[in-house]
Every structure is written in C-alpha cells, then in structure tokens.
Amino acid sequence: MVRKRCKLIKILASILCAGIFMSSFPSVVNSSFHPVLGGKRTITASVTLTAQDYNERKIGPPGGSVYLEDGTGVTIPEGALTKWVSVFIKRIKDLQSLPLGNRAAMPVEPISAYEFGASELDGKKINSLMFNKASTVILAYEDGERILEEKLRIFWRDLLDWRLSGGKVDKKKNIVTVRNVMHLSKFALFPIRFGLSADAYRPVRKIITPAYKDGINDEIEFENLDGKQFTIRIYDITGKRIRILSNNPVWDGTDDDGDIVESGVYIYQLKVEDKVISGVIAVAK
C-alpha cells in the first residue's frame, strides 16, 4: 500500500510540474482515474490549449482558413495556393514595439496587431507567401474609450511603411474585414486619415524586379482602393498598352499574356471615382 501511494504521489507530482511548465500558455489540465483490467487504476492527463494568441493550420490548393478565438483570421480561397503550406497567426502583444502609423494611418500606436506567416511542411520559413487569388483577413479589437471604430482600417507592414489594405468595421463583433489581401504579412488596425490626396493612391515602390520571384520588390500595389471600383492601365514609353487591371490593385510586372515585361520605364494610369492618377514605374530584370 505504501509503495502504491508513493507511486501515485510521483505521478501527481509529474502532472503538477507539467501544469507549471505550461502555465505560460492558456491551457487547462485535467486528470482522472480510469479502472482497467486486473483491478488496477491508472491516471491520465489531458491538456487543452486554447487558440487565444496563436494558431496554425495546413492549407493547400483546395483553400482553407485559420482563426484565433477572438475572431482574427484568414480565409484563403480555392486556387489561391499552388502547394500545401502551414499558415499561422500570432497576436502581437507588445504594441509599443511596433512603428507608429504613417501615410494613410494616423500617427498613433496600432489598436491591435497580428503576424500572419507561413512555412513549408518541412518547417522551412516562407518569407513572403503570395496568393493567386485575393484572400480575406479579419482583425479583432477590444472596446476602448479612445477608439474611433468607424475610422478603423487594416494596414500591412512592408520594410518602411504601414500600407493600407482597407476594411469594413463590424461594431457588434468588434472586427474589421478586408477582402483584397494578396500576401501574408504583419497586419494592424489604425484609425485612418480621411480626405486622401492623389498621392495616397500611388504605389510606394518605384522600381520592381519581377523576374527574380524572391518575394522582394516583385510587384507594386496601389493603395486605399478597398471597396472602390477602379481600373489600372499600364503602358510602355511608346504608348502601347501592356496590361489592364480591373479592381485588382497589384501589378506583378507581367503583360496581358502573363509574360514578364522587358526592363524599362512604364507608365500607369489609375482611374478611381472621379480621379485619374498617373505615374511611372521602372522594371529591372
């Protein structure tokens, strides 16, 4: 009897230690006795991890989604991916570590922020996961006295700036939804500046290198177009039309046939609402 009690104490102690080790995660540890054949009793422990701050899921060509408990997540449609990858979402708790809003965002700390990323199935990190079709991203936020909910928009972070994706606010659910996402990144909620000038629509990048396909400077993206009807035309310096984009804010350096254009200077013309905005982009192979 003494031996059995000592053994039982050791098992319970190991479970307690496991619970202490897991205390940094939002988890619940349950233990229970289960009778087995021979009249002996065993102890089993079940650990349930909640998805409050992190979640991960394998998604491939059929499409799929991954979400946190607060409603933050991404839905990737069928055909957006050409291979299976592991997609994750991680809530960024230290908002003060992030740059303040700029460009179309008010110069304040983000209301909430999350890192969306991906890796190969063997664990190798993918620096920039691109989609063939627009995906939907939802960011959640908590109520606060200083939050102007109607002004909240989703922004993604590039190397230098917070870039506007847009979004629609649902005040009842405390979420903002955007449906034009073409890649994963760090996403954050900022109040937007209203009364945008023509420059607010222009792409940040002036030079792209689409032939490398390394996720760096592969494309340009026009901003502040979520929820708007627009057309983008790309011309070469002779005036020949190269590409037409309808309600697609991203040009990847290809023509209407899908071929990468030659190196050189190209002219873009964006028509949105009552504005016609022109500029130049350099393509380098």
Based on the model shown, name its key terms.
285 residues; mainly beta; Chondroitinase Ac, Chain A, domain 3; Immunoglobulin-like; 3 domains; seven-stranded antiparallel sheet; five-stranded antiparallel sheet; globular; disordered N terminus
Provide structural commentary:
The chain has three domains: 2-49, no CATH class; 54-191, Chondroitinase Ac, Chain A, domain 3 (Sandwich), CATH 2.60.220; 198-283, Immunoglobulin-like (Sandwich). The protein contains one helix and 21 strands. The model is unreliable at 1-50 (pLDDT under 50). Strands 3, 6, 7, 8, 10, 11 and 14 form a seven-stranded antiparallel beta sheet that branches. It has a five-stranded antiparallel beta sheet with strand order 4-5-9-13-12, with no helix packed on it. Helix content is 7%, strand content 44%. The radius of gyration is 25 Å and the shape is globular. The chain has 285 residues and is mainly β. It has one helix at residues 2-21; strands at 27-35, 41-49, 54-59, 64-67, 73-76, 85-91, 112-119, 125-126, 130-140, 152-157, 162-166, 168-170, 175-183, 186-191, 207-208, 220-221, 230-236, 241-246, 250-251, 264-272, 275-283.
Q: Assign the CATH class of the largest domain.
A: Mainly Beta
CATH architecture of the largest domain: Sandwich
What is the strand tally? 21
Rounded mean pLDDT score: 82
- The coarse overall form would be globular
In percent, how helical is the residue content? under 10%
Distance between the termini: 79 Å
Low-confidence stretches at least 5 residues in length (pLDDT < 50)? 1-50
Structural class: mainly beta
Could you say what the CATH topology of the largest domain is called?
Answer: Chondroitinase Ac, Chain A, domain 3
Could you say how many structural domains there are in total? 3
Report strand %: 35-45%
The succession of helices and strands, N to C, reads HEEEEEEEEEEEEEEEEEEEEE
Query: Given the structure, what is the number of helices?
Result: 1
The biggest sheet, with number of strands, parallel, antiparallel or mixed sense and barrel status, is: 7 strands, antiparallel
Nearest-angstrom radius of gyration? 25 Å
